[in-house]
Amino acid sequence: MKRILIALKSLLVMVGCYHVGVPGGRSVAFDEVVLTNKTHEPSLARQFDMAFKEQISVTPGVHDRATKDGVHYNLDIELSSVRNLSIARAEVRDKKSRDDKNQAYQTVLNRVELTVKVKAYNLDQPAHPDSPTYEHTFIGQGDIPRMHDREVPLQAAYRQATDDAARQIIAAIAELTP
Description:
There is one protein chain. The chain has 178 residues and is an alpha/beta fold. The protein has helices at 2-20, 43-58, 151-176; strands at residues 28-37, 62-63, 71-89, 106-122, 134-145. It has a five-stranded mixed sheet with strand order 2-1-3-4-5. Helix 2 packs across helix 3. The longest helix has 26 residues, at 151-176. The radius of gyration is 22 Å and the shape is flat. The two termini are 38 Å apart. Mean pLDDT is 79; it is low at 18-23.
């Protein structure tokens, strides 16, 4: 019976730490986020902004407003490029649908890669206000099937790539916090 109570208490403590914030760490707050879109897709800025705000809202210990005991950051985010890649998958065609052995494999997937450059400035360390505390390049990925009409799946792949990049950025900044 004592083992069950100990296990239950430890479970409650872990769940409580998750809901309060980062266990043993300080919360992260973003005072100002400057987003620059240098890609050929104008809709990526809006999609990335929505994905970034969503990741802030679902990540424990991360806030979009200044908090009393948190570490405050200003972010410069640049959506620098979008690439479309063809990913070959080993999908074997049946013998009736191919003319020779060279056509046994086909490309069935295209990948979208969004390159995002991030500079984070820690406002709690005003010693060097012009030099970034953290600087990194992230690559968000989204996959689309190879289809004759690409527009709808391409927009879904852009959304997936922005979500992936935003998730990576929030995780990296949250890990910086002591």
